[in-house]
Structures are given as structure tokens and as C-alpha cells.
Amino acid sequence: MNINLTLFAQAITFFAFILFTAKFVWPPLMRAVEARQKQIADGLAAAEQGHRSLELSAQQSNEEIAKARARAGEIVAQAEKRASQMIEEAKLTAREEGNREKTAAKAEIEQEVSRAKETLRSQVAALAVAGAEKILRREVDKKVHADLLQAVQAEL
After folding, report:
1. Contacts of residue 122, Cβ cutoff 8 Å, sequence gap at least 6
2. According to a count of CB atoms within 10 Å of the terminal CB, is the N or C end of the chain lower?
3. Residue 41 within any structural domain of the chain
4. pLDDT per residue over 58-95, tens digit each?
5. Which of 143, 112, 113, 148 is nearest to 127 (CA)?
6. 17 domain residue, yes or no
7. Left, alpha or beta for 137 (phi > 0: left; psi -120 to 50: alpha)?
């Protein structure tokens, strides 16, 4: 093997290329690689934080749904309770109204009975006077006739 000046020149050139690359090319490449690594790490951290945030949001939404369901159950229970109260109130009102109508009907019946009795009394009194008149075969004057009717009505 022949070592000559060309080999030394190539070695010096290669060494100069390595120094140039190490001083001017390598640092920007390393900065670009480090920046890219930092960007990737930030992206992974943001993804992890987003994942945690998603899990927290899902947990909160499940809690809110559970609260809403519980509240809906309470509202339904209150509505059912109010409906049963309204039914009971309606039944009570209907009973009271029925009792009032029954009392009014009884009072009306009593009035009708009283009127029928009065009518019957006057008819019986008139029949009694007519019968007495026929028996006596004479006319009783009006004043005596009226007094007699009232006395008979009072007795009946």
C-alpha cells in the first residue's frame, strides 16, 4: 500500500468536513430533533390530559344523569302523591255535595209532604163541613163556616 500525499489530503479534508459538520451542521440538526422530541412529548402530554379530562367529563355527566334521574323520580312521586290527594279531595267534595243534595232533597220532600198534608186537611175539612151541612140540611153562615174549617184543620 502506497501512502502518499493524496491520502493525507483526503484525511485532512475528511477531518475538516467532520469539524465543519460538528460545528455548523450538527447543532441545528440536534436543535431540530430536540424541538421535534419536545413537540411530540407535549402532544403526548396533551393527549393524556385530554384523556383524563374526557374521563372526568364522563364521570361528571354520569353523576348529573343520576341526579336528574333521582330528581325525575322525586317529581313523579310528588305528582303521584298530588294526584292521589286530588282524587281524595274530589271524593270528599263529591260526598259533601251528595250529602248537601240529599239534605236538600229531604227538605224538599218534607215541604211537599207538609203541603200535601195542608191540602188534605183543607179538603178533609171541606168534606167534613159539607157532610155536616148535608146532615144538618141547612147552610152554616160564612163566619161560622170559616171558624169551623180552621178548627178542623188545626185538629188534623
Report:
1. 149, 153
2. N
3. yes
4. 999 999 999 999 999 999 999 999 999 999 999 999 99
5. 148
6. no
7. left
Query: What cell numbers appear for 89 in the block?
Result: 279531595
What would the pLDDT profile of 4-22 be if each residue is shown by its tens digit? 888 889 999 999 999 999 9
With beta carbons less than 8 A apart as the criterion, state whether 96 and 127 touch: no
Q: Is residue 16 part of a domain?
A: no
Full-model pTM: 0.44
Position 27, amino acid: P
Name the residue range of residue 141's domain: 25-155
Number of domains into which the chain is organized: 1
CB–CB of 149/129 below 8 Å? yes
